[in-house]
């Protein structure tokens, strides 16, 4: 059955609609996040609002999204409503003949190896650039210079060994996970005053790979360095962070001052590490924490200090070595102290004799169904 003209434009329209929905997402909501890589459904907060940036700056104006009737469209690509979709075409380089009024350029799943000086010449209105799953190993220092309005750069799953040079000052979101980056030098993010979301997991980064001052000047609210080679919590990350995800590393302990700098955290992800010890008082530096992920570690007890976190609502402790749960491990003594009750506590796959746990242990939980016990396997 032949394809009609409307079906040919469905995918570009879907890309544009998804991008606009992402830009207007509300903060701290459990909603799916459109990731071009379609890897883990990452959740994040509203980047423009949380950074204090103008939420309309650089975002396509719906009233202006009318067909341009331009004859400029690279061979094999789909072009509609300022969206140029050139994915899955086996391209070896960035195509020519891209309309200068393009807002979204999708080049994912190709064989591009290099970004040259003039590859994006004239694309001064580009808002989002998707280069996921190519073979890019070299980027000219002026490749991104024409992109004065670029806010979202997705360049994950390539062969990069360093952070791209001279990133656009307008950039809000950088996704560069699953590359070969081992070092984050000082000054690499200088001038990026609007940046508030960086996803750089899946790179062979060690703690020593972050030069002192590597994140100077950034006011991030979201940072993910998962699936790397970290053995401890980095101490020089932006103090503005609301979300920090360090899951799937080799972190073995949380020492007293490891979290001193991160008092604005809402969500902290430390699952799938090798954490055996959390020093008493470590969590007291996180007064606004709402969600704590410590699952799949080697903890032998519930971390001290949870009852003092008045806003904490979700704690993941499953798949550890916890053998005992005390009556005051989660809830403060007395009433009216905790401002937000728990709506999720996971303790399954721990060697806890759950029949010995006193009911009063969960007196500050909204519902018994919010507690997950049992299913321990040696």
From TrEMBL:
Stored Pfam families: LRR_8, LRRNT
Subcellular location: Secreted, Extracellular space, Extracellular matrix
Keywords: Disulfide bond, Extracellular matrix, Glycoprotein, Leucine-rich repeat, Proteoglycan, Repeat, Secreted, Signal
GO molecular function: cytokine binding; extracellular matrix binding; glycosaminoglycan binding
Protein name, as recorded: Biglycan
Keyword Disulfide bond: yes
Cellular component terms (Gene Ontology): cell surface; extracellular matrix; extracellular space; sarcolemma; transport vesicle
Any GO BP: bone development
Keyword hit for DNA damage: no
UniProt family annotation: Belongs to the small leucine-rich proteoglycan (SLRP) family. SLRP class I subfamily.
S-S bridge residues: 73-79, 77-86, 331-364
């Amino acid at each position: 059955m032949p394809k009609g003209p409307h079906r040919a434009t469905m995918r570009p329209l879907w890309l544009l609609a998804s991008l606009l929905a992402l830009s207007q997402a509300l903060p701290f909501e459990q909603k799916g996040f459109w990731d071009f890589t379609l890897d883990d459904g990452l959740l994040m907060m509203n980047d423009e609002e949380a950074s204090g940036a103008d939420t309309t700056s650089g975002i396509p104006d719906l009233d202006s999204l009318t067909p341009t009737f331009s004859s400029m469209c690279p061979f094999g690509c789909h072009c509609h409503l300022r969206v140029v979709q050139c994915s899955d075409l086996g391209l070896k380089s960035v195509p020519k003949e891209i309309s200068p009024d393009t807002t979204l350029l999708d080049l994912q799943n190709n064989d591009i190896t290099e970004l040259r000086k003039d590859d994006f010449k004239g694309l001064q209105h580009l808002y989002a650039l998707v280069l996921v799953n190519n073979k890019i190993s070299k980027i000219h220092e002026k490749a991104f210079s024409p992109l004065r309005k670029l806010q979202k750069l997705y360049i994950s799953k390539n062969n990069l060994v360093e952070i791209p040079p001279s990133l656009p000052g307008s950039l809000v979101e950088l996704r560069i996970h699953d590359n070969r980056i081992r070092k984050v030098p000082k000054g690499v993010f200088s001038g990026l005053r609007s940046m508030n979301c960086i996803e750089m997991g899946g790179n062979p980064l060690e703690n020593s790979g972050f030069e002192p001052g590597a994140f100077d000047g950034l006011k991030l609210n979201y940072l993910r360095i998962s699936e790397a080679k970290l053995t401890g919590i980095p101490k020089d990350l932006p103090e503005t962070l609301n979300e920090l995800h360090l899951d799937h590393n080799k972190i073995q302990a949380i020492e007293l001052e490891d979290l001193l700098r991160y008092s604005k955290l809402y969500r902290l992800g430390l699952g799938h590490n090798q954490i055996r010890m959390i020093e008493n008082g470590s969590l007291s530096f996180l007064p606004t924490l709402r969600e704590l992920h410590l699952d799949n570690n080697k903890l032998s007890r519930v971390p001290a200090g949870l009852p003092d976190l008045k806003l904490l609502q979700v704690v993941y402790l499953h798949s550890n070595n916890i053998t005992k749960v005390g009556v005051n491990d989660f809830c403060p003594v007395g009433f009216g102290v905790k401002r937000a009750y728990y709506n999720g506590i996971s303790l399954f796959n721990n060697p806890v004799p759950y029949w010995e746990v006193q009911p009063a242990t969960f007196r500050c939980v909204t519902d018994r169904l919010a507690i997950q016990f049992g299913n321990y396997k040696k």
